[in-house]
Amino acid sequence: MCSLFAALALATLPVRWSPGQIEVEVSVNGAAPVWFVVDTGAEYSILDRELAEALRIQVFRRGAREFARGVTLRLGGVELRDQEVMIWQLDNFRRQGRKIAGVVGFDFFARQVVCIDYAARTLTVMDPADFQPPKSAVAMPLTFAGRIPVVPVTLAFAGRAPLRANVIIDTGAQIAMTLRHPFAERHHLIELASAQPRTSETLAAGRTAFLELVAQRITLAKWSFERQRIEIYARASGAGAYTGTDGLLGNEILRHFRVTADYSRSRLYLQPSP
C-alpha cells in the first residue's frame, strides 16, 4: 500500500527492524543522523540525555520530567521544526547493546499521514491534504487517550466469553499485547496467567514485572490471530494501574500489515502484507 503513495509522498524512508521495533535515522538540529525508534505509543518524541548534552540543548523541567523546546528533527526529506521533545536517559537500549539515540513520537504522526510497510522495511510520509486511502485498505476509527492512538480489539480465552478491549496502537512494543492490571483483574484473567511473574524492560518504567498467558484469539478489524502470548502488568501501579486504556497492541500483530495512520481524520488503515 505504501508504494501506491510514492507520487504524493513527502518522503519514503528506509527503516531498520531490530527485530521487534522499527528504527529510522533522524538528524537533530542539523547534526549527523542517529537511530530513533518509531513509536506511536510515545506521547512525545524523545532525545537521549547524552545526545542532548552533546548537542548542548537547553533543558527545562515540567513536573518530574525534563523537556527541550525549539528542537529540529529531520527524517530524510521531512523536517519538523520547533519541536518540544522529552529528555530521557535511554539506558534500556544500552543494556540491549543497541545504539538508539531517541524516539519518534506523537508530534511526528500528528502532522502528517504515515504509512509503515513492515515487509518492505519502509516508512512513507504524506501531507494529509493529498492523502486518499486505497479502496483495498480496511479503515478503523482511532480515538485518543491524550496523545496516544487507541483502537478496539476482541480477545478470546478458552472457556470464556469474548472480551472487548480498547488498546493503544504501539509500534514501540515488541509483543503482541500487554494488558493493564485493572482490566485483567476485572475480567478474571489473573487466574489464567503464569503463577510467577517475569521482568521485562520498558522505556518509561525500566524493568517491570509481568504475568503471562496465551489468548486463544486476538481479533483486529476482520483479522484474527490464534494462540498469541499476552503480558499482564503484575501490579496495579504506575502504567499497570492506568484505566484510560485497557492495554496495548504491539508489533507481533502489527507487522502482518501495512499500517497507515491518519491522525487528522482519526483513522487507521490496514492492509495485509504480501
Overview of the structural elements:
This protein is mainly beta and 274 residues long. The chain folds into 2 domains: 2-126, Acid Proteases (Cathepsin D, subunit A, domain 1); 138-272, Cathepsin D, subunit A, domain 1 (Beta Barrel), CATH 2.40.70. Helices cover 10% and strands 49% of the residues. The strands form 3 sheets. It has a 6-stranded antiparallel beta sheet. A 6-stranded mixed beta barrel has the order 3-4-9-5-8-7. The chain has a 6-stranded mixed barrel with strand order 14-15-20-16-19-18. A hairpin with a 4-residue loop joins strand 10 and strand 11 (122-126). The chain starts with 8 loop residues before the first strand and ends with a strand.
Key features?
274 residues, mainly beta, Cathepsin D, subunit A, domain 1, 2 domains, six-stranded antiparallel beta sheet, six-stranded mixed barrel, 22 strands, 10% helix
Beta fraction of the residues?
over 45%
Radius of gyration: 19 Å
Q: What are the low-pLDDT stretches, counting only 5+ consecutive residues below 50?
A: none
Mean pLDDT: 93
Question: Can you tell me the CATH class of the largest domain?
Answer: Mainly Beta
How many domains in all? 2
Find the CATH superfamily of the largest domain.
Acid Proteases
Order of helices and strands: EEEEEHEEEHEHEEEEEEEHEEEEHEE
Counting DSSP E segments of at least 2 residues, the number of strands comes to 22
**Helix content estimate:** under 10%
What characterizes the major β-sheet?
6 strands, antiparallel
Q: Strand order within the widest sheet? A: 1-11-10-21-22-12
